[in-house]
């Protein structure tokens, strides 16, 4: 079992292959948290599950990098996901998605900082990247608050890439 990551306001629970496939009611019971009607977050689509399963097989040492984001109190609520995956032996990419009703409260930043610390606890990872769109200023702000800097175009048309090197990470 992969331990939860706790922050001041959040509980980050590892997404295991069985947890990926759970219906909201069962997920709620397993996580001991409310799963809002607005679940799942944007971009949480079947191809994401397939990608995560392949990553867990290909890089088992990165197990636990994909997490459900739960607000801890007053009553636990599943508010989003965040995760990462190795791109090379020394570079990983991260991403996040918070339900719209929970955005603009610093929760994505808080969770992303915790994930960055977790991933960078592995000495092999020297660089973290993230991709987003210029039309998502809140997402850009999360990356900037976490110390990422613009690094050029992303892989998807119109996307941008940000990066941070271990030596420059303020966390």
Q: How would you explain this protein's 3D organization?
A:
With 171 residues, the chain is an alpha+beta fold. It has a single domain (5-168), classed as Aminopeptidase (3-Layer(aba) Sandwich), CATH 3.40.630. The chain contains five helices and eight strands, in the order E-E-H-H-H-E-E-E-H-E-H-E-E. The protein has helices at 17-20, 24-31, 46-58, 107-120, 137-145, and strands at 5-6, 10-14, 67-71, 77-86, 91-98, 127-132, 149-153, 160-165. An eight-stranded mixed beta sheet has the order 1-2-3-4-5-6-8-7, with helices on one face. The longest helix is centred in the middle third of the chain and has 14 residues, at 107-120. It is globular and about 40 Å long. It starts with a strand and ends in a 6-residue tail after the last strand.
Describe the structure in brief.
With 171 residues, this protein is α+β, with helices and mostly antiparallel strands.
Strand content: 25-35%
* Total number of strands: 8
Number of domains: 1
- How many helices does DSSP assign? 5
Name the shape in a single word. globular
Q: Report the order of strands and helices.
A: EEHHHEEEHEHEE
Q: Output the strand order for the largest sheet.
A: 1-2-3-4-5-6-8-7
Briefly note the CATH topology name: Aminopeptidase
Q: What are its keywords?
A:
171 residues, alpha+beta, 8-stranded mixed β-sheet, 28% helix
Topology:
Blueprint (H helix, E strand, L loop, with lengths): L4 E2 L3 E5 L2 H4 L3 H8 L14 H13 L8 E5 L5 E10 L4 E8 L8 H14 L6 E6 L4 H9 L3 E5 L6 E6 L6
């Amino acid at each position: 079992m992969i331990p939860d990551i706790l922050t001041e306001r959040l509980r980050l629970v590892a997404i295991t292959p069985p947890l990926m496939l759970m219906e909201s009611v069962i997920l709620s019971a397993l996580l001991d948290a409310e799963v809002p009607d607005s679940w799942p977050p944007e971009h949480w689509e079947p191809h994401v599950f397939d990608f995560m399963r392949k990553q867990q097989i290909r890089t088992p040492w990165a197990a636990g990098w994909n997490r459900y984001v739960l607000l801890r109190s007053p009553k636990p609520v599943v508010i989003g996901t965040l995760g990462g995956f190795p791109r090379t032996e020394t570079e990983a990419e991260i991403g996040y998605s918070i339900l719209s009703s929970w955005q603009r409260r610093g929760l994505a930043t808080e969770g992303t900082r915790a994930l960055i610390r977790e991933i960078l606890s592995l000495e092999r990872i020297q660089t973290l990247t993230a991709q987003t769109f210029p039309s998502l200023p809140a997402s850009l702000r999360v990356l900037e608050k976490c110390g990422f800097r613009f690094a050029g175009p992303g892989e998807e048309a119109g996307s941008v890439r940000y990066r941070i090197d271990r030596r420059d990470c303020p966390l």
